[in-house]
Amino acid sequence: MGSVVWGCITDFFTYETTKSVVVKSWSVGIINRIVQLLIITYFVGWVFIHEKAYQVTDTGIESSVMTKVKGFGYHNNRVMDVADYVFPPQIIQHSISPLFLPHIPGVITGACINNASESQGRCEIEGWCPAENDNVIIKPMLDVKNFTIFIKNSIRFPLFDVTRGNFPSSMTSEQIKRCTYHPEHNPFCPIFRVGDVLNYTGQDVADLSVKGGEIGINIQWKCNLDLSIEKCIPQYSFTRLDAPFAKNAVSKGYNFRFAKYFKTENGTEFRTLHKAFAIRFDVMVTGHAGKFDTIPTLINLVAAFTSVGLGTVLCDIILLNFLKGADQYKAKKFEEVTCFLLPSVAQSPGSQLSLKHGIKSSSDSGAISLSICDQAM
């Protein structure tokens, strides 16, 4: 039992040092260089050039957006302008209680109305008369495709204290009035034609105007602050946000209700209820900025140099398991040296440090050169 404990203690207090073994094998050498080349290409091409891992990045973008819609169209033989067709959703609350049921067009007051011709009474309902009628079909205003949306977007990256706008400060009001956004010919114009935006999303104006829909305008900022600040420019993309519900039987499209109220001379209140099927535009701003920094550069350089050693691990697996002469390689790679053998210079022919026939010592100190066959075991 004591010898076992003593053996564990002596095994624990040991020292391992790297031993260099030169293997002259074409196949293993080619595999080693290919793996190293792939690792270096990955770090240089993807990590440093594409992902710019040498930069510190600010993703906490601060943004503000202001929009204006302009255009005229005909609806029910009436000319409509921006004051008629741009509506924010409004909720008007009345202090009415007690009971509300979704399928009843009003609020139950709790009073019962008795009719002399009927044996039973009816519950009194307070609400607007007549009730909403969903069977009314009104032709949509297709002139919406010629309307324009002006988008004014300003952003700031707080880490670098950099601010930018979505159109050049040198652009005059006359230039803005005459321009229309185009991804290639006029990418910095802040005026977007509704018909063009819908075409970018693959939507048809006539189909979309029947039930409405939600369109997303994404403004993306990707800024490399190691370059000129003038190259920090926005990129626009467009998508239909309610696409998953486009084929649903219920709750498809986008609509909201609003009312206009009137009062006669005798004090009677009336209202006109509008159910608007509309195209909703959501402007979303995303982005990040990057700038060179020493710390991420050093971290990724160390990771790159460390990863190059993976080629050695792969070659060791091949040498130790798949090539003829693996036992020879094991004998030279893993060697135990006891303390009383260290001062000895000349080794006996039968010792572990002796060279077998066909094995030559290299000129480097502490290195051994092996010539093995490139054949699988």
TrEMBL record:
Question: What GO CC terms are in its UniProt record?
Answer: plasma membrane; postsynapse
Q: Which InterPro entries has this protein been placed in? A: P2X_extracellular_dom_sf, P2X_purnocptor, P2X_receptor, P2X_RECEPTOR_CS
> Major location, coarse class?
membrane
Compartments reported by the entry: Cell membrane; Membrane
> Disulfide pairs?
179-189, 223-232
Q: Does the keyword Kinase apply?
A: no
The record ties this protein, via Gene3D superfamilies, to: atp-gated p2x4 ion channel, atp-gated p2x4 ion channel domain
Question: How does the entry describe its membrane topology?
Answer: Multi-pass membrane protein
> What positions does the record give for glycosylation?
146
Record keywords: ATP-binding, Cell membrane, Disulfide bond, Glycoprotein, Ion channel, Ion transport, Ligand-gated ion channel, Membrane, Nucleotide-binding, Receptor, Transmembrane, Transmembrane helix, Transport
Gene Ontology MF terms in the entry: ATP binding; extracellularly ATP-gated monoatomic cation channel activity; purinergic nucleotide receptor activity
TM annotation in the entry: 301-323
- Recorded catalytic activity of this chain's protein: Ca(2+)(in) = Ca(2+)(out)
The reply to whether Signal figures as a keyword in the UniProt entry is no
| GO BP terms, alphabetized | calcium ion transmembrane transport; response to ATP
**A Pfam family hit:** P2X_receptor
**Chain positions recorded as ATP binding sites:** 68-70, 148, 255-257, 275
Per the entry, what this protein does is: Receptor for ATP that acts as a ligand-gated ion channel.
What family is it from?
A: Belongs to the P2X receptor family.
Protein name listed in UniProt? P2X purinoceptor
